[in-house]
Write a structure and sequence with these properties.
By secondary structure, the protein is mainly alpha-helical. The chain has one domain. It has 13 helices and 3 strands; from the N terminus they run ααααβββααααααααα. It is globular and about 55 Å long. It starts with 31 loop residues before the first helix and ends with a helix.
């Protein structure tokens, strides 16, 4: 078969299916793949309602309006999960290019006056029928799917695969950097390099990473607000009322929570002390109200979910499915740990929301779409076993 042909069916790897079978019966769909995200989304719904209660009261006279909006997005997200669960994996394989082009066009549309909406100086949203949508969330998933396809089609030629991935990254990064959205750009690059490493090794990504680090340094140095984030990370107490304010207030929230927390709804930092308490810094707000036990519980749930994804990765057919499972897992795991590391001052802030927990419709819906994809691959594996 010619190398340029799109090959969907791949030979199954020789793995131990002892964990995948019980008494000779094929494994059913792994309930933890959707149950853990549901628990995280439920915790997020509680925290969004708690942290936005003062804002909600100002908007509507009730403390629940923002929580109700998040609940609607959660309902839509679960519906999208069911839709993606019903779509065969081969359909995503065949339509990956169209999906990427449509998401790229939507991302470019954010830059068109009258279509795109600016929030906080960033032009990242489009407004349709009164609903704001962030196309970069869709673009991230579409890039993962098409990179998984490229990895299969160019399996015998790693250099060609790498060059095509780099072209894909370059085209995808142009509208993201114009918004500007450096966080999403870095995320997509990290995920694509991670998918390439999974199949072809470290050689080309390491060289590209060294060159990219130099470019990233220039991008940060020549953009004042990015440099302020770096300085706030290095020493937030140099300017505690401006650049370091958010970082310091996040640390205060963790300190207020202690081991057991102040109790749900009893946090003080949400009272206009902690900026973005229901979005980027919701992990700090959670630490204040649920304490160290709550934050460690969130980490434990995330690690358990990644472990279940790892089991799925070991079971599905080698080729498109393995790359897709790996890539989808990265799109959830990487933002999770970047957010936690930024909030706890282990790395500079990137403005990346906490998956399934932070307030935001587009991110929540697309996270649940990923869950549906994973469940579909698990189902198809079970049926073929």
């Amino acid at each position: 078969m010619r190398e340029t042909e799109a090959v969907y069916v791949s030979p199954r790897r020789s793995v131990d299916f002892g964990e995948a079978r019980s008494s000779g019966q094929a494994l059913k769909v792994d309930s933890l793949l959707w149950l853990i995200p549901l628990i995280l989304s439920g915790i997020g719904l509680l925290m969004v309602t708690s942290t936005t209660s003062p804002l909600s009261f100002e908007i509507s006279g009730t403390p629940f309006i923002m929580g109700a909006r998040q609940l609607k997005w959660l309902g839509l997200g679960v519906s999208v999960m069911l839709f993606s669960y019903c779509v065969p994996v081969k359909v995503w394989f065949k339509t990956s290019g169209v999906f990427w082009l449509l998401s790229l066009v939507a991302t470019i549309a954010t830059l068109i006056p009258g279509i795109g909406t600016a929030v906080g100086g960033a032009q990242r949203w489009i407004r349709i029928a009164g609903i704001s949508i962030q196309p970069s969330e869709i673009l991230t998933l579409s890039v993962v799917i098409i990179v998984a396809k490229l990895s299969v089609r160019n399996e015998m030629n790693p250099e060609r695969c790498f060059s095509r991935i780099m072209f894909l990254l370059f085209v995808s990064a142009i509208p993201l950097m114009a918004q500007p959205d450096l966080g999403s750009t870095i995320l997509i690059v990290m995920i694509c390099m991670g998918m390439y490493v999974e199949r072809f090794g470290w050689r080309l990504p390491i060289f590209t990473g060294m060159c990219g680090s130099v470019l990233l340094a220039f991008v940060i140095i020549f953009e004042p607000y990015r440099m302020r984030r770096i300085m706030a990370f290095l020493n937030p107490w140099l300017d505690p009322l401006d650049t370091g304010f958010q970082t310091i207030q996040g640390l205060i929230a963790f300190a207020n929570g202690g081991t057991w927390g102040a109790g749900l709804g009893h946090g003080f930092q949400k009272l206009q002390y902690l900026p973005a308490a229901y979005t980027d810094f919701i992990y700090a707000a959670l630490g204040e109200e649920m304490g160290l036990i709550g934050t460690l519980g969130i980490l434990a749930l995330c690690l358990m979910w990644i472990w279940r994804c790892r089991l799925l990765y070991n079971r599905v057919d080698e080729g498109f499915e393995t790359s897709l499972v790996w890539g989808v897992t990265l799109t959830i795991a990487v933002p999770f740990f970047i957010n936690v590391a930024g909030v706890t001052k282990l790395m500079p802030l990137t403005g990346m929301p906490l998956p399934f927990i932070s307030y935001g419709g587009s991110a929540l819906v697309m996270m649940w779409m990923r869950v549906g994809l994973l469940l579909r691959m698990h189902k198809e594996f079970a049926e073929s076993s």
